[in-house]
Each structure stands twice: as structure tokens, then as C-alpha cells.
Task: structure prediction
Amino acid sequence: MDRIHPCRICGNYTESGVCGVCGDTERDQATVCVVESAFEVESIERTGQFRGLYHVLGGRLSPLDGVGPENLRIDALLDRVRDGGGRIREAILATNPSVEGEATAVYLDSILRSQGVRVTRLARGIPVGSDLEYVDGSTLAQALAGRREM
Ligand SMILES: [Zn+2]
Result:
């Protein structure tokens, strides 16, 4: 465990300077998935459905706990967007669907959009295997709002 530290590019866990995802040139360099913690990188990697890059914020905005933009790796994200010379075209905001996670996404949306990056958000919906009758109203409302073509 002593050798594990944050990747100097994305903040993911690694034993070397750059993590396996950032070091993989086969991955889609135009798409960055923004998550709160490195645990979420593992969760998304496990799906095998994402071939882009990551950016770990190291938390979420929480004014009541004294966590502002300067306490997260937001500057590092902006540096990646600017230094990439337009290579990063889409940012997928995968912060948690909590009040703080939403506030963080709204904040990131405005600053990333001003850099000309397409900003998307993970779809929210009904958990697989659940019964509509027992899904709470806000989840159902979000699933309706986020409906897609069949
Ligand atoms: Zn990395």
C-alpha cells in the first residue's frame, strides 16, 4: 500500500507516476470522465463500457464543510483541457447524485463549457431489477426527464 499514490495526470491510484489508464494510448483521448474519487474509476472500469480517460476531483464542493473549488483538482482539470489544445472534446460529469455532487456538476459545467468542451452528465434512472411501483418519486421523475429513443 505504501507505493500507491495519485496519478500525476488524473489523480487515479497508481504505483507509478502515471496510471494505467493515462498511459494507455489506445484509449479515447477526447473524452474525460470526471469523478469524485478514485474508487469510482474502479467502478466504471469494471463495467468495461468506457474507453476514455478520467479525472479524479478528490471530493465535491461542500461550502458547509469548507470545501471550495480550490480544494478540489479543478485547476488540474482546466490545465488538461487547455494544455490539450482542444484534444479533450467531451467531459462526462459523473459526480454523485447528491446535493453536493449536483452543485459540483453545475459548477464544472459552466467553467468547462466556457472552454468549448461538450459537457454531459451520467443518466439517472431506475435501478436494474427494481419495480416501478416502489421507485421513489424523484428517481422516477429524473428517469422520465432523461428518457431516450428506443
Ligand atoms: Zn491517470
Summary: The chain has one domain: 5-123. The chain has a mean pLDDT of 94. The two ends are 46 Å apart (CA to CA).
